[in-house]
Design a protein that fits this description.
It is a single chain. It is built from 11 helices and no strands. It is mostly helical and 279 residues long. α6 runs antiparallel to α7. Helices cover 81% and strands 0% of the residues.
């Protein structure tokens, strides 16, 4: 029993560090050659899956359907950051059209990964919501589920815009050797900016509702639940206010809208639900 607990605690620490290390390397170092980051990412995927297994995913081998479904739902919330951890090697998106076109394949891979991550977030919310409903909590679990199933399609559309529409647009601009931005581009960009505000604000609202539901069922303690709720609602308010372009809300809203950032709290919720399933 003791070795299993030790491995579970070690897995918890490793999984908790992944988003922090990914952000530090991604923004601090920038783009790395794929011959370096790809093997490192594959190793990290193996380590994260192993850590999740020892933390609680191993209960899928048992006959306890409730724990098995909870483990699957929790793991679905963890998968997005297993995927986006590859961004430590991608670095932030390029700042101009020429650099974007030069790394076009990686940009399309980046936003394709984010689309897949969004799908798993929706799966995770759906499965966990069923478990919460069976525990007698209907309102907040339903509110969170409805918010996320509205947000994720908008998120997918937004990611496809960035990964494919924008890439093709930049290719045309670079090929034309013109420095002038087409007149139609800015209205389209503003439109997708508003889509981003809607989907990100709904995502944070869904997280707050999920945390409230976890609190009511007793799956999360009062203090951790309140932390998730306060952080999510604060992010929701900042994102909404950022739509008016006022500082400091515009910059803060931009930071909170970075595609993988809204998935951080569901990731940590997933980790803790995995630990609960394992216990």
């Amino acid at each position: 029993m003791q070795p299993r607990i030790y491995k579970g605690n070690l897995g918890l620490v490793y999984l908790s560090l992944v988003p922090v290390i990914t952000a530090i390397l991604g923004f601090g170092i920038g783009h790395i050659n794929y011959r370096i980051y790809l093997p490192c990412w594959i190793l990290n995927v193996c380590l994260m899956v192993t850590a999740a297994w020892f933390l609680g995913l191993n209960v899928i081998r048992k006959n306890d359907l409730e724990k098995k479904h909870l483990a699957f739902g929790a793991f679905f919330l963890v998968i997005p950051w297993i995927l986006v951890s590859i961004f430590f090697g991608f670095g932030p998106p390029p700042g101009n059209a020429k650099e974007w076109v030069a790394t076009a394949t990686e940009q399309q891979v980046r936003y394709s990964i984010l689309v897949i991550a969004g799908v798993f977030i929706a799966f995770g919310f759906a499965v966990v919501r069923e478990r919460l409903k069976n525990k007698g909590e209907f309102f907040y679990s339903l509110l969170g589920f409805l918010s996320i199933i509205i947000a994720i399609p908008l998120f997918i559309i937004n990611m496809l815009f960035w990964g494919f529409f924008l890439t093709e647009t930049f290719r045309i601009l670079v090929a034309s050797t013109s420095d002038k931005t087409p007149e139609w581009f800015m209205p389209v960009r503003s439109f997708f900016g508003l889509i981003s505000i809607v989907e990100v604000s709904l995502t944070y609202l869904a997280i707050a509702a999920l945390a409230a539901s976890l609190k009511l069922t007793g799956w999360f303690g009062k203090i951790p639940s309140l932390i998730y709720i306060i952080m999510s609602l604060s992010a929701f308010i900042i994102i909404v206010l950022s739509a008016f372009g006022r500082e400091p809300f515009a910059q803060a809203g931009f930071a909170l809208s970075i595609p993988a950032i809204p998935f951080v709290m569901p990731y940590f919720i997933g980790i803790n639900l995995l630990r609960r399933a394992g216990n």
